[in-house]
Write a structure and sequence with these properties.
mainly alpha; de novo design (two linked rop proteins); 6 helices; 0% strand
Length: 188
């Protein structure tokens, strides 16, 4: 073997090692991004259930609706494996509350109602954005993990494959805003 061939082989091995190391580092950063996005999503969901509990105890709703809403908000907070279902049920209950014609009329002239409803709309939008960022991070991570080199060399190590978080998170009756995009906002 000539010295030039030896240098070329050594350079190829070094370059391959650097590339594999870079791919492993990228996967690690992607997993950290997924964990951060999940923490942000969890915080937004907890905030939304807190505002729903505040709405349930505000006296703006009839007692039966308040009880149901409080129960669903509590279930959403304490749900384990069925969190997506519990969060979707909370969204549907909130959407039902806002679609009642007598609900809007009962808010007339109440200062505290506007602030509470604005906060609920804000938290619904935050949940929408946090879920979107989380699912985008999951999609990129899953795509990176499915590449042949990542699978062959097990570059993800023992990290579990992240899963998407799919819930009904729109407070609008049809789930659409004026431009036809899927945005959470309160029905008028």
């Amino acid at each position: 073997m000539t010295p030039a061939v030896g240098v070329a082989i050594a350079a190829a091995i070094i370059l391959a090692g650097v590339y594999v190391s870079w791919r492993a580092g990228r996967l690690d950063r992607l997993h950290a991004r997924v964990e951060t996005a999940r923490a942000s999503l969890d915080a937004a969901l907890v905030r939304r259930s807190s505002v729903a509990l505040e709405l349930a105890s505000s006296g703006l709703l009839d007692p039966a609706t308040s009880l149901v809403l409080a129960d669903l908000a509590h279930n959403a907070r304490s749900a384990g494996q069925d969190r997506e279902l519990a969060e979707s049920e909370l969204t549907r209950a909130l959407r039902e509350v806002f679609s009642q014609p007598d609900f809007r009329s009962s808010l007339e002239g109440r200062e505290d109602a506007g602030e509470l409803l604005g906060e609920l709309e804000s938290t619904a939008h935050q949940v929408f954005l946090a879920r979107r960022f989380y699912n985008d991070a999951v999609a990129v991570t899953v795509a990176a993990r499915r590449r042949w080199l990542a699978r062959l060399l097990r570059l993800a190590g023992g990290a579990p494959m992240p899963g998407f978080f799919e819930i009904d998170d729109s407070l609008a009756p049809a789930g659409m805003d004026e431009q036809g995009t899927d945005m959470p906002h309160l029905a008028s």
